[in-house]
Amino acid sequence: MYAVIKTGGKQYKVTNNEKLKIEKISVNVGEKIILNQILAIYTDKNIILGKPLISDATISAIVLAQNRFKKIKIFKMKRRKHYRKNKGHRQNYTEIKIISINYDKKIN
Predict the structure, then answer these.
(1) What family, per the record (predicted)?
(2) CA distance 24 to 26
(3) 30 domain-assigned
(4) What is the total count of domains within the chain?
(5) pLDDT of residue 30 exceeding 80
(6) What pLDDT score was predicted for residue 59?
């Protein structure tokens, strides 16, 4: 069983006990969070699609860490113009572990 969720403007395919790095959420490490923007749930026999979201479903997760990705180097240059610019960027992320996928209605 897996689900497709939306968080931070991106979509992720998640299963139980999966570790995932998502866009930064303002919660403390060790706290439990509920993700409720679920686009689809896939079981062995059924597919439940939201229009656009499934209102009866939730996903429980626990926050493992608040970190930053590796530095991305940005280099701009215009040839023969003596223009060069170096920049760098590190994106913040929240690492979570999916505990359970909950759906209130009965799945046949």
Answers:
(1) Belongs to the bacterial ribosomal protein bL21 family.
(2) 7
(3) yes
(4) 1
(5) yes
(6) 95
How many residues does the structure list for the chain? 108
- For 55: left if phi > 0, alpha if psi spans -120 to 50, otherwise beta; the answer is alpha
54-102 confidence digits (pLDDT tens): 988 999 999 999 999 999 999 999 999 999 999 999 999 999 999 999 9
Tell me if 41 is assigned to some domain: yes
In sequence order, what DSSP letters do the residues of 9-71 get, joined into one string? TEEEEEETT-EEEEE--S--TT-EEEE--EEEEE-SS-EEE-SS--TTEEEEEEEEEEEEPPP
Residue 101, amino acid = I
Q: Decide if 60 contacts 34 (C-beta within 8 A).
A: yes
